[in-house]
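Field log, afternoon session.

UNIT: design team B
ACTIVITY: writing a sequence onto a fixed backbone
BACKBONE:
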C-alpha cells in the first residue's frame, strides 16, 4: 500500500470514533471535550491551526476545519470562550476605529459615541475657525464707494447706439441729521421694530435665502435693516452665489458689531432704491415730491417707506411696461395707500407717532411725474421700456431678472429701426398738427391720443412703435396695452375661423368634429339686414339667459345686400364692414372657434372679451397695437405665426448672455391665410380702407371703429411689413377721478372718427416712407377654398316684415348732427326695460349686452360692446380694464396677462 494511502494509527479512546461519540453526547445535552484534552497526536494539527491565524480552538475533523475556514472572519466551528463570533483584533490600534473591529453585522457600522463626539468637535471647531477668518477678511462697506453703477447700452437694429441708461444713478448722500425723524420711525416700524436692540442678523432669514437659492429660486434679501443695508452696499457684486450670501452674512455681523445703529440706519436710507432711478432718501424726495428730504412730512415718509417694498408695484404712476396686468397705476396706488396706512398705524402702535398727527394722512400724498432723464424723452423712453419688459418678462429665456438688469453692464441690441421709428412719429404729428386743435375745440379735441406699431412678418421683430407724445410726459405706452377696443379689425378672425373650421351643421349638435362642418368660401352669402335677429346654428333665435333676443344693427342703421333678403357675400361684407353678416357668421362657426382663431394668429387670451355674446365677433376685445400688428403679420406670412419681440441679443463683459431664436408655428394653412389676405385686399382697393392705398404696392387691411365712437383703428400689411394704428380719447391726467374713454364725435372737425379717416391716413403716410427702397412684392394668389353656404337662402333666413328698417327706425347718428348719440335698437316684444334695453340705460354704460348693442361704428362697421356691470367702474380709473366683458385687466399688451 502506498504511503499516502496508509491510514494513521488511531489512538486508544480517541480519533474519529471519539469525535462521533462526542457529537452524540452533544446532541443529548452533554458537551464533547476538546480533542486537545486527550493528549492525542491531533495536537500537532491544533498547533498548525493556531499558527495559521486561528484562535486556538480545535475542530472535530479536517472537513469541519475546512468548512470553518470557508466561513472566514477568523472564526472556527466549535470555538468557545469569550471571543466567540468576533473578529481577531488588529495587530495595530487604529486612530479611527471605523468600521468597528470588535462588532459583527450592522453593529460593525454603527459609530461609537466617542467617534461621533470627535466628529462634532472637529466640525464646530473648523466652523469657528472659518468664521474667524471670514470675519477678519471682510470690511465694513462705505456707501459713497458703491454709489456708482454701470450703464445698460441700448442699440438700434443697425448696431448704432440708441441710448445709455441706468448708470446715471440719482443718488445724493445726506447726513443722519438731514433725514427726518419720521422717515427713520416709519422704516423701523415697518421693517425692523427691534432694530436698536437686535444684533443685526436674522439667522432664519439667512437660512431661508440660502435654501431658496439652493432650490433654484430667487435669492431673498436680509430680514433686518442691517442686512438690507449690507445687501444694498454690495449691489455692485452681480453674482447670486452661496459665497456671496456667506460674505453678506459676515459683513452684516461685522457691521452690527463695529458700526453704531444710527450710522447703519443712515447708510440704509442713503443706499436703498426707491424706484424712478432714485437711490437714497434725498433722491427719492426729489423724484416723487421735488423737495429736499428734511422737508418731508409724516405722510410722505410713510409713503416712501411703502415704496421700499418694491417700486414696480408701489409707484403710483404704475409700471405697465414691466407688468401690464399687476402694475397698473390703479393697482399700484391701492397697494401704496394700504402699505402707507399700515406703516402709520404701526408708528402709532409703537409710540413713534401721535394719533392726532396720524389722522392727517389718509390719502396718498401728491406726487409728480416719474421721468426726469431727458435722454429718454420722445419715443426713446417707450422703446427702452419695451426692451426692458421683454428681457424681464422672458427671464426664463434671457436669464436676466429685473434686479440684475437694474445693476447694469449689459449691451442690449434691439429690433427697432431708427428711420421707421422717426417716420411713424412724424406721420402721427403731421395728422395731429393739421387736425387736432384743443384750443379751438376744447370739448372735442382734448385728450386725443394715438398709438402704433410695426412688425416684420418674416421674423416677428418689432421694427417701430409710437407710444405717445413724449415718454417723459405721457407715461403709458400707447403701442402696448391701453384698453382701447379694436372694433371691426377683429372681423378677419371670424372669416379665418369659418375657413379653417367651418360652420356647424344645423342638424348636428353644438360640438361637432371638423369633418362634420362645412368650410366656408368668401362667396358664401349672409344677411346684411339691419337689426337682424341673430340665429343659433340650429335656426333658433339667439337668446340670453333672461330670454331676451339679439338684434344686430349696422353702421348708420342701414341694410346691405340685395333686397328683400339683403343677402351679401362675405367678401363684400368685409369690404364695407357689414356687422350683421359677421355676427351671424360668428355664431354659425361658434364663438369659441373665433376666439381660437384670434389666439392662433397671435393675440393674447387675456386681452380677449368673453364669448357669451354675439358681439364678440365685432371686436369688443382690447389687444395692443403691437399684438394687432403681429396678428395680421400671420396672414401676411401665409399663416406662419411668430410672436413679436423687441430684443435680438444681450451681451455683457463676458460675452453673449442671450440671443433671440425665432419660433414659428403654422396658425393657419396657406390656403386659409392667403384667402383672408385676398379678401382684405378688397377693403383697401374698393372698400372702407381706400385711404391706405400705396402706389405700386398691394395692401391688405381692415378699418375699425368702436361703440360710442371711442376708438378707431386701421391695421394693414404688405408682404414685408404689418402695421397697426389706433386713435382714442382718454384723459392723461392722473388727478382726474373716474377717467373714461371719451367719444370722438366732432373730434378733428369731423362728425365722427372712423378707422378710414385719421388712422388710415397715418398708416399710409408712414408705410410709404418705411417701405421706401424695398421691392414691391405681390401677395400669393389664393386657390379657391370651401363651399358657398346659403347659396339658396331658406325662408327662415329672411327677416319678417315686422323687422323692416322702416317699421323699426334706427336711432344711429347722422352726419347732420355734430354729436349724435349711438344707435339704440328697439327692444323686441320679449324685451323688458332693463340691462338689455338700451333706451333705458344711462350714459355710463358703454352699450350693454342686449339686442344688438348700441353704435355700430362708422363707414368701417363698428362694434357692439358687451361689458359686464363692473366695466364702467373699472374703466373710470384703469383703461386697461375696458376689454368688453368686465374680466379684462389691461393685458392686451405685448407681455401682459397670465397666459402671456
Amino acid at each position: 500500500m502506498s504511503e499516502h494511502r496508509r491510514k494513521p494509527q488511531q489512538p486508544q479512546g480517541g480519533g474519529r470514533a471519539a469525535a462521533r461519540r462526542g457529537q452524540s453526547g452533544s446532541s443529548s445535552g452533554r458537551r464533547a471535550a476538546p480533542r486537545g484534552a486527550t493528549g492525542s497526536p491531533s495536537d500537532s494539527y491544533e498547533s498548525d491551526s493556531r499558527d495559521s491565524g486561528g484562535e486556538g480552538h480545535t475542530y472535530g475533523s479536517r472537513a469541519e476545519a475546512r468548512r470553518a475556514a470557508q466561513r472566514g472572519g477568523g472564526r472556527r466551528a466549535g470555538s468557545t470562550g469569550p471571543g466567540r463570533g468576533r473578529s481577531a483584533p488588529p495587530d495595530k490600534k487604529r486612530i479611527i476605529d471605523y468600521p468597528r473591529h470588535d462588532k459583527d453585522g450592522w453593529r460593525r457600522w454603527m459609530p461609537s459615541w466617542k467617534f461621533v463626539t470627535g466628529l462634532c468637535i472637529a466640525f464646530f471647531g473648523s466652523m469657528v475657525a472659518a468664521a474667524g477668518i471670514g470675519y477678519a477678511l471682510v470690511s465694513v462697506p462705505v456707501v459713497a464707494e458703491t454709489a456708482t453703477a454701470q450703464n445698460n447700452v441700448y442699440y438700434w437694429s443697425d448696431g448704432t447706439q440708441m441710448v445709455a441708461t441706468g448708470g446715471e444713478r440719482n443718488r445724493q448722500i445726506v447726513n443722519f441729521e438731514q433725514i427726518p425723524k419720521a422717515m427713520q420711525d416709519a422704516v423701523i416700524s415697518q421693517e425692523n421694530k427691534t432694530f436698536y436692540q437686535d444684533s443685526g442678523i436674522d439667522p432664519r432669514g439667512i437660512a431661508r435665502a440660502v435654501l431658496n437659492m439652493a432650490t433654484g429660486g430667487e435669492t431673498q434679501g436680509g430680514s433686518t435693516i442691517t442686512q438690507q443695508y449690507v445687501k444694498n452696499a454690495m449691489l455692485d457684486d452681480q453674482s447670486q452665489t452661496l459665497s456671496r450670501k456667506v460674505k453678506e452674512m459676515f459683513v452684516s455681523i461685522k457691521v452690527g458689531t463695529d458700526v453704531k445703529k444710527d450710522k447703519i440706519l443712515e447708510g440704509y436710507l442713503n443706499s436703498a432704491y426707491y424706484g424712478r432711478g432714485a437711490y437714497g432718501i434725498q433722491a427719492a424726495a426729489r423724484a416723487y415730491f421735488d423737495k429736499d428730504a428734511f422737508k418731508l412730512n409724516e405722510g410722505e415718509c410713510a409713503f416712501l417707506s411703502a415704496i421700499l417694498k418694491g417700486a414696480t408695484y408701489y409707484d403710483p404712476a404704475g409700471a405697465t411696461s414691466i407688468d401690464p396686468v399687476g402694475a397698473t397705476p390703479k393697482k399700484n396706488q391701492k397697494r401704496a395707500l394700504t402699505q402707507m396706512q399700515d406703516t402709520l398705524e404701526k408708528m402709532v402702535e409703537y409710540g413713534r407717532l401721535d394719533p392726532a398727527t396720524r389722522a392727517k394722512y389718509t390719502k396718498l400724498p401728491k406726487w409728480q411725474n416719474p421721468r426726469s432723464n431727458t435722454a429718454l424723452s420722445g419715443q426713446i423712453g417707450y422703446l427702452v421700456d419695451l426692451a426692458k419688459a421683454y428681457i424681464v418678462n422672458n427671464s426664463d429665456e434671457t436669464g436676466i431678472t429685473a434686479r440684475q438688469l437694474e445693476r447694469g453692464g449689459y449691451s442690449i441690441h434691439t429690433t427697432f429701426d431708427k428711420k421707421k421709428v422717426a417716420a411713424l412719429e412724424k406721420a402721427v404729428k403731421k395728422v395731429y398738427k393739421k387736425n387736432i386743435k384743443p384750443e379751438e375745440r376744447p370739448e372735442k379735441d382734448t385728450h386725443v391720443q394715438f398709438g402704433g406699431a410695426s412688425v416684420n412678418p418674416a421674423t416677428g421683430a418689432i421694427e417701430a412703435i409710437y407710444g405717445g407724445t413724449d415718454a417723459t410726459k405721457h407715461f403709458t405706452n400707447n403701442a402696448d396695452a391701453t384698453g382701447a377696443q379694436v372694433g371691426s379689425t377683429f372681423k378677419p378672425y371670424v372669416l379665418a375661423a369659418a375657413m379653417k373650421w367651418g360652420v356647424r351643421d344645423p342638424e348636428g349638435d353644438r360640438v361637432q368634429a371638423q369633418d362634420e362642418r362645412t368650410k366656408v368660401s368668401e362667396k358664401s352669402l349672409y344677411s346684411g339686414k339691419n337689426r337682424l335677429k341673430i340665429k343659433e346654428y340650429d335656426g333658433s333665435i339667439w337668446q340670453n339667459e333672461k330670454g331676451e333676443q339679439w338684434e344686430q344693427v349696422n353702421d348708420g342703421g342701414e341694410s346691405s345686400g340685395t333686397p328683400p333678403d339683403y343677402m351679401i357675400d362675405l367678401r363684400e361684407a368685409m369690404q364695407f364692414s357689414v356687422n350683421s353678416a359677421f355676427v351671424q357668421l360668428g355664431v354659425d362657426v361658434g364663438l369659441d372657434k373665433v376666439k381660437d382663431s384670434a389666439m392662433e394668429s397671435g393675440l393674447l387670451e387675456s386681452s380677449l372679451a368673453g364669448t357669451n355674446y354675439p358681439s364678440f365677433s365685432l371686436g369688443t376685445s382690447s389687444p395692443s397695437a403691437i399684438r394687432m400688428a403681429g396678428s395680421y403679420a400671420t396672414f401676411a406670412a401665409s399663416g406662419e405665426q411668430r410672436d413679436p419681440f423687441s430684443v435680438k441679443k444681450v451681451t455683457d463683459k463676458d460675452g453673449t448672455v442671450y440671443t433671440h431664436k425665432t419660433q414659428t408655428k403654422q396658425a393657419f394653412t396657406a390656403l386659409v391665410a392667403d384667402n383672408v389676405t385676398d379678401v382684405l385686399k378688397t377693403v383697401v382697393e374698393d372698400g372702407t380702407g381706400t385711404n391706405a392705398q400705396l402706389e405700386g404696392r398691394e395692401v391688405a387691411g381692415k378699418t375699425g371703429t368702436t361703440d360710442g365712437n371711442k376708438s378707431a383703428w386701421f391695421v394693414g400689411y404688405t408682404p414685408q411689413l404689418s402695421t397697426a394704428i389706433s386713435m382714442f380719447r382718454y384723459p392723461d391726467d392722473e388727478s382726474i377721478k373716474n377717467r373714461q374713454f371719451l367719444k370722438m364725435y366732432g373730434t378733428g372737425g369731423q362728425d365722427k372718427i372712423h378707422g378710414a379717416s385719421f388712422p388710415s391716413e397715418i398708416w399710409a403716410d408712414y408705410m410709404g416712407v418705411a417701405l421706401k427702397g424695398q421691392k414691391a412684392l405681390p401677395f400669393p394668389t389664393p386657390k379657391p377654398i370651401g363651399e358657398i353656404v346659403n347659396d339658396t337662402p331658406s325662408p327662415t333666413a329672411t327677416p319678417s316684415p315686422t323687422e323692416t328698417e322702416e317699421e323699426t327706425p334706427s336711432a344711429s347718428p347722422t352726419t347732420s348732427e355734430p354729436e349724435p348719440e349711438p344707435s339704440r335698437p328697439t327692444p323686441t316684444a320679449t324685451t323688458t326695460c332693463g340691462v338689455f334695453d338700451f333706451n333705458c340705460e344711462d350714459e355710463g354704460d358703454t352699450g350693454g349686452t342686449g339686442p344688438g348693442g348700441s353704435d355700430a361704428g362708422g363707414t368701417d362697421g363698428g362694434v357692439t360692446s358687451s361689458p359686464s356691470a363692473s366695466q364702467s367702474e373699472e374703466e373710470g380709473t384703469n383703461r386697461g380694464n375696458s376689454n368688453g366683458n368686465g374680466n379684462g385687466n389691461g393685458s392686451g399688451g405685448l407681455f401682459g396677462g397670465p397666459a402671456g
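LOG NOTE: The longest helix spans residues 113-137.
NEXT ACTIVITY: expression trials, pending approval
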